[in-house]
């Protein structure tokens, strides 16, 4: 960095090589230095050169490859012969079959490649030096050119492209920066990178598929993300899901920040910190994780900061001979949902590589967490950890020098210590990491562990620490708070930080008082009487009916999205009850109230609970939830029999065979957990299970009929606010108890004193007033029926209507919005029709024009899809049209049908089908039956035409199409598509097999889009 830059930042703890700066303060003069995109690019390059990057004026692949050769020769102290280089480049760097995944694996896991020399000898060639990172050389290029190319026999057309700025590490392009001018949405830089991947990153030798990280910036805002976010996003788009947001979309880009979690958004500050040579090289070589399913995860700054502080504490306390004391450890406060498992894995992995460390123990406090954490660790690195099912296995692992990282439970570790006095492992250098280090029983086990082990570091992760204010009064007074048990707080990332960064969603809380409890809540009435009154049959019926009536609204069942190659509608929910007795009563009531509902429309309700010991005084003081174990044999006979019956209901629903035996119940837990994650279960009634340690991104609503406070409240609420896609905008809490004070107190405790206004959505009135202003402006500036002339006015309309759609998306979750939409359904449809027409014209096939427009137009098509018209609504209008046919009233109804179709993104390409059906609908036939028959006939006719036109095999084609309609997408890969093509050799001269295959895929995809969701 340059002298006198005005920015002040310092290393974390004791190391000048910390990846995340301790605190960053931007120079206010930096904000006025540049405006245009070219000036932005020039400033970025200047700053990089100032930080000892070498600028290379190369813009062609030949120059790029020549530089790569020179850099690898310098890194490896070797001179390739021309033949050696050609062979190494073709086989080890730019293999014809290699794509993004293969090249990412090479960088992350296989960065040393074997060169076979001309003399027959072999030599290891490193693409990166991950041990001594400053041996790697950083260079920067800009305006790299990829020439255009016409489509060939088996290759698509390639557009000419120029890339903004690329960082080369040892000659390989590993970081790409895409810039947009100030004032332009940085999503357009994200979209630009998508276009490059589609059009040109694969071109030539495919070196740009080595890019691991992308940086997008408009000068004011800057974010980064990994290559698989982009690759998976495109892959999902290519499978018929175009336009839908996924977990790999823009929502998963990240801010860079300092160690106080203050985002560093301006490009100047970002460049001085993220692009500091040691920071960038650390991120690339240490803080990326390639998962078992080949997804590249890049860690966020708070995760990196916490990991480095743990590693730093291990090293410094070892040097200072503080092993076995609180000074050798500490705790990390990272809010629930912020990715503690990834942070702890990386900390454990890097700690296990420290030469002096013998073992890393990762300790969880529940069997279900043991199962879940093992699965997560295995996802990060296959075989990285050793889990155990018994204390005997734990003993073997502790005695095995090759078992470096071990996952176990507190209970197993405590049993091992009790049975193995004086074991040799106690003398080893051990790092012990506790997940969710808040449990009260930890107090006794803490004493046992610290007495047994001699040379240990104790680290804890928690989203909800125990402070003096929420500590209980029982147990060892020296171990009541997290700091007392673990030592210093090493890093903090609160719920407020996570929501501000959009790493978790805000909460939307409704307090519903269905029955006035009155004097029952008086403190003089015993708790059991209070709960008995709250379980009055009348109240339980009202609460249950409220859930059933509002379930679709809260879980957004009118909106669909892609989930693991399936299309699903909306989200699912938990219902938290105060006791096993309450859970049983509610389960029965749901069954009773849904008895007359057709099975296809019933909520799929499951029940789970197990035995929990009475809560200790210090547990209730901290608001801790009772610990439910898997020992169902400890349940009373009535509760176990009821649970057995409920599990049998589940078996009948899903064709499974679980029960309440020890193994049967654990398997039931795991299957139910998986079905929740896959959105196959609608609602699970729980007491405490699933309220902590359970993550399902498809879960968006928690119905609460139990008292919660402090730790337990935040843990329970946080089940709902995991990011999934743009349809899921917040976590829904619907409370049937008055928890407002407890909620505000918990948020203040685990966020900050002003947290309530940040964590919760604003009141209905604030959103509604803004919405009303937007509707007024829309009506006055763009009256319905009046043409919008000129590009500037069209852009203004797009921006205004898009803002209105975003507000409406929030407001529809408020009960108060019903009947107060201001904008009539008809006007909304008319405006949507105009919006969709503009979308179609701005996204026309002329790509050059489209790119020019893309710089300053962002469409909210996803939000229109959330309120779009469906076929049932159209058929209802057709029914009216048929009834009115011939009496002069049909014109208006037909116009309503046209408006509805025009306003729907998914029905516009079916307009001719609908219009023809309306014209031919008969007087006395059932409309729904007639529609189904009409669609079936049309579908068959059009499919026969495609088969005839493309000379396809009829039966395999029909099977292929049936599979597409079953799975919700046309699969363009695999053998199924090739089996339907006419018999022609793909190698015969002029066969053009690839082009033929693409034509068939395009036609079948258009056919699928036209008829999907019509039956």
From TrEMBL:
One of its GO terms (biological process) is DNA restriction-modification system. SMART domains: DEXDc. It catalyses: Endonucleolytic cleavage of DNA to give random double-stranded fragments with terminal 5'-phosphates, ATP is simultaneously hydrolyzed. Its EC number is 3.1.21.3. Signal peptide: none annotated. SUPFAM superfamilies: P-loop containing nucleoside triphosphate hydrolases (SSF52540). One of its GO terms (molecular function) is type I site-specific deoxyribonuclease activity. Keywords: ATP-binding, DNA-binding, Endonuclease, Helicase, Hydrolase, Nuclease, Nucleotide-binding, Restriction system. Residues 321-466 form the Helicase ATP-binding domain. The keyword Hydrolase applies. It is an enzyme of class 3 (hydrolase). Subunit R is required for both nuclease and ATPase activities, but not for modification. Belongs to the HsdR family. The type I restriction/modification system is composed of three polypeptides R, M and S. This is Type I restriction enzyme endonuclease subunit. It comes from Cellulomonas persica.
């Amino acid at each position: 960095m340059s002298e006198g830059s005005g920015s002040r930042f310092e290393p974390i703890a004791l190391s000048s090589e910390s990846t995340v700066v301790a605190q960053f303060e931007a120079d206010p003069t930096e904000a006025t230095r540049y405006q245009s995109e070219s000036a932005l690019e020039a400033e970025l390059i200047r700053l990089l050169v100032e930080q000892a990057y070498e600028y290379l004026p190369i813009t062609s692949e030949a120059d790029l490859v020549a530089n790569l050769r020179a850099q690898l020769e310098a890194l490896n102290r070797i001179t390739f012969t021309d033949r050696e280089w050609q062979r190494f480049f073709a086989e080890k760097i730019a293999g014809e079959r290699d794509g993004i995944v293969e090249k990412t694996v090479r960088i992350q896991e296989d960065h040393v490649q074997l060169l076979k020399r001309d003399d027959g000898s072999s030599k290891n060639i490193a693409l990166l030096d991950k041990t001594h990172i400053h041996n790697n050389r950083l260079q920067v290029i800009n305006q790299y050119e990829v020439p255009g190319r016409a489509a060939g026999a088996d290759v698509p057309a390639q557009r000419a492209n120029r890339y903004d700025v690329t960082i080369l590490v040892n000659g390989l392009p590993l970081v790409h920066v895409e810039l947009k001018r100030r004032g332009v949405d940085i999503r357009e830089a994200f979209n630009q990178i998508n276009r490059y991947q589609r059009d040109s990153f694969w071109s030539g030798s495919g070196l740009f598929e080595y890019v691991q990280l992308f940086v997008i910036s408009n000068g004011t805002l800057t974010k980064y993300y990994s290559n698989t976010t982009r690759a998976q996003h495109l892959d999902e788009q290519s499978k018929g899901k175009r336009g839908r947001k996924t977990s790999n979309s823009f929502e998963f880009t990240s801010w860079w920040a300092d160690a106080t979690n203050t985002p560093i958004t301006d490009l100047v500050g970002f460049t001085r910190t993220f692009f500091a040579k040691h920071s960038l090289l650390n991120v690339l070589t240490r803080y990326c994780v390639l998962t078992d399913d080949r997804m590249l995860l890049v860690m966020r700054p708070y995760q990196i900061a916490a990991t480095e502080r743990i590693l730093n504490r291990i090293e410094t306390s070892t040097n200072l001979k503080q092993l076995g004391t609180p000074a050798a450890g500490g705790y990390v406060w990272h809010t629930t949902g912020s990715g503690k498992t990834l942070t702890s894995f990386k900390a454990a992995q890097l700690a296990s590589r420290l030469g002096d460390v013998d073992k890393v123990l990762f300790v969880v406090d529940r069997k279900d967490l043991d199962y879940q954490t093992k699965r997560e660790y295995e996802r990060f690195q296959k075989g990285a950890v050793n889990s155990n099912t018994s204390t005997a296995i734990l003993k073997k692992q502790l005695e095995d020098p090759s078992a470096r990282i071990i996952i176990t439970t507190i209970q197993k570790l405590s049993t091992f210590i009790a049975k193995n006095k004086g074991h040799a492992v106690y003398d080893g250098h051990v790092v012990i990491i506790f997940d969710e280090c808040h449990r009260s029983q930890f107090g006794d086990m803490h004493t046992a562990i610290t007495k047994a082990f001699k040379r240990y570091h104790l680290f804890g992760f928690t989203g909800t620490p125990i402070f003096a204010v929420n500590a209980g009064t029982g147990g060892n007074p020296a171990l009541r708070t997290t700091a007392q048990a673990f030592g210093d707080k090493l890093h903090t990332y609160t719920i407020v930080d996570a929501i501000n960064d959009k790493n978790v969603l805000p909460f939307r809380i409704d307090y519903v008082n269905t029955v006035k409890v009155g004097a029952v809540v008086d403190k003089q009435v015993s708790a059991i009487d209070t709960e008995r009154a709250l379980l009055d049959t009348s109240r339980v019926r009202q609460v249950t009916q409220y859930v059933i009536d509002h379930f679709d609204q809260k879980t957004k069942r009118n909106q669909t999205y892609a989930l693991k190659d399936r299309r699903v509608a909306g989200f699912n929910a938990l219902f938290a009850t105060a006791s096993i007795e309450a859970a049983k009563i509610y389960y029965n009531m749901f069954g009773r109230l849904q008895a007359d509902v057709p099975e296809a429309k019933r909520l799929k309700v499951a029940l789970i609970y197990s035995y929990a010991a009475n809560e200790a005084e210090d547990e209730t003081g901290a608001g801790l939830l009772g610990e439910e174990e898997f020992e169902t044999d400890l349940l009373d006979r009535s509760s176990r029999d009821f649970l057995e019956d409920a599990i049998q209901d589940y078996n009948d629903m899903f064709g499974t065979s679980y029960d309440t035996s020890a193994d049967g119940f654990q398997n039931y837990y795991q299957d139910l957990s998986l079905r929740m994650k896959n959105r196959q279960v609608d609602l699970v009634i729980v007491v405490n299970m699933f309220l902590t340690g359970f993550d399902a991104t498809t879960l968006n609503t928690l119905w609460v009929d139990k008292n919660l406070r402090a730790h337990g409240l935040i843990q329970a609420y946080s089940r709902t606010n995991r990011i999934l896609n743009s349809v899921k905008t917040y976590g829904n809490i619907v409370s049937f108890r008055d928890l407002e004070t407890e909620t505000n107190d918990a948020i203040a405790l685990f966020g900050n004193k002003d947290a309530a206004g940040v964590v919760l959505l604003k009141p209905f009135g604030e959103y509604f007033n803004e919405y009303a202003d937007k509707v007024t402006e829309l009506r006055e500036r763009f009256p319905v029926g009046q043409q919008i002339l000129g590009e500037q006015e069209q852009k203004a309309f797009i921006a205004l209507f898009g803002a209105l759609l975003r507000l409406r998306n929030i407001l529809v979750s408020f009960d108060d919005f019903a009947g107060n939409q201001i904008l009539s359904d008809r006007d909304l449809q008319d405006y949507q029709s105009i919006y969709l027409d503009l979308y179609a014209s701005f996204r026309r096939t002329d790509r050059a024009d489209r790119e020019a427009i893309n710089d300053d137009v962002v469409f909210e098509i996803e939000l229109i899809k959330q309120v779009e018209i469906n076929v049932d609504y159209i058929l209802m209008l057709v029914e009216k049209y048929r009834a009115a046919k011939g009496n002069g009233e049909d014109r208006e109804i037909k116009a309503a049908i046209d408006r509805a179709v025009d306003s729907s993104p998914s029905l516009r390409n079916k307009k001719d089908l609908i219009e023809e059906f309306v014209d031919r609908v008969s007087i006395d036939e059932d409309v729904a039956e007639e529609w189904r028959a009409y669609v079936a006939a049309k579908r068959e006719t059009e499919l026969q035409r495609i088969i005839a036109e493309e000379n396809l095999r009829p039966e395999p084609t029909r099977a292929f199409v049936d599979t597409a309609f079953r799975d919700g997408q046309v699969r363009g890969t695999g053998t199924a598509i090739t089996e339907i093509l006419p018999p022609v050799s793909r190698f015969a001269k002029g066969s053009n097999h690839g082009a033929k295959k693409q034509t068939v895929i395009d036609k079948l995809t258009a056919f699928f889009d036209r008829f999907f969701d019509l039956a």
